[in-house]
UniProtKB/TrEMBL annotation:
<dbReference type="Pfam" id="PF03401">
    <property type="entry name" value="TctC"/>
</dbReference>
<dbReference type="InterPro" id="IPR005064">
    <property type="entry name" value="BUG"/>
</dbReference>
<dbReference type="InterPro" id="IPR042100">
    <property type="entry name" value="Bug_dom1"/>
</dbReference>
<protein>
    <recommendedName>
        <fullName>Tricarboxylate transporter</fullName>
    </recommendedName>
</protein>
Length: 313
């Protein structure tokens, strides 16, 4: 667990203030520090807090493939101040773990970015592309690959690239987020792993990024090859890219959801956020509100079982 933040006035007991926001935002991040979700979430909600003269407190609550943090949000008060990020393929955990609640019970604030998964490797290995990595696995020079907990999008992707792209890794090593995966690759614990382009761009001095796992590539690495450049005709784009959004507890009232959506859109369109996006290459834009996000999440919930046998996870 990691706790940090910029604190403003103390939170009240019931969150029923006349002016919103007037208290600290409490943002639960279900994945590890230093990953793409962590980077985006801290930047966006600190910007929203600063623009409204309140504080933002961030807590990384990892474990159970993100479900520990999601469960904490589910049990939080729906006062408009308790929030968490959500990545569209992570609906798989609701199917796998059956936590007693569903993704459509949450209130969804809005989508803010689309992210691409990339294959990253240890620079000491000297891999220059997907074929080099595949050949090393075939030769037995390397054997394992890193991703997040079973059922996470990059775990599903690791199965896909083995089955569909002939990247024949032998063992899967799980970490809590792209940040820890990058640390493991850079430290020589694992030769390769699947991480977000956001996290990879923030760690280019520690890892080699060899392939984008989406046919359109990633704007963060405009010269990077994608898996179709190696002659693969199978489509893995559904898992190779995903929607990023935010959500609130189920009992968050409509007016608070509407107000949060406006705050998110204003922040994303602000000069500060656009400058950050330009400086870092992490593109952000307001992609749509609750209805838009729900449609994407429902589609993911329906299609993931078509890709992989949930019972095997």
């Amino acid at each position: 667990m990691f706790l940090t933040g910029c604190l403003g006035d103390d939170n009240g007991d019931d969150g029923a203030d006349d002016e919103f926001p007037s208290e600290n935002f409490n943002v639960t991040i279900p994945w590890g520090q230093g990953g793409g979700t962590d980077i985006f979430t801290r930047q966006i909600w600190q910007t929203i807090a600063d623009q409204n003269d309140v504080g933002a407190q961030f807590e990384n609550v990892t474990g159970a493939a993100g479900m520990r943090g999601i469960t904490e949000l589910y049990n939080s008060e729906g006062n408009g101040y308790n929030l968490a990020p959500m990545n569209s393929p992570s609906v798989s955990h609701f199917l796998i773990q059956e936590p007693g609640f569903t993704i459509d019970e949450f209130r969804h604030i809005g989508g803010y970015a689309r992210t691409v998964w990339v294959l990253a490797t240890d620079p000491d290995e000297g891999f220059e592309g997907l074929d080099d990595v595949s050949d090393a696995y075939d030769a037995g020079d390397i054997s394992n690959i890193a991703g997040q907990q079973p059922g996470e999008p990059n775990h599903v992707l690791s199965e896909l690239i083995r089955d569909e792209l002939d990247v024949q890794w032998d063992s899967y090593v799980a970490y809590d987020g792209s940040g820890p995966i990058i640390e493991a690759i850079a430290g020589g614990e694992v030769p390769a792993g699947i991480v977000t382009d956001t996290a990879a761009a923030d760690a280019q001095d520690q890892i080699d990024v060899v392939t984008a796992l989406h046919s359109e590539g990633t704007p963060l690495f405009p010269d990077l090859s994608n898996y179709t450049d190696y002659g693969h005709e199978v489509d893995i784009d559904f898992m190779g890219g995903f929607l990023r959004s935010f959500m609130a507890p189920p009992d968050t009232p409509d007016d608070r959801v509407d107000e949060l959506t406006v705050l998110l859109q204003e922040a994303l369109e602000s000069e500060e956020m656009q400058e950050w996006a330009e400086d870092t290459g992490n593109e952000v834009e307001f992609l749509g509100g609750e209805d838009y996000v729900e449609d994407v999440l429902v589609e993911n919930q329906e299609r993931i079982p078509e890709i992989i046998d949930i019972d095997d996870l």
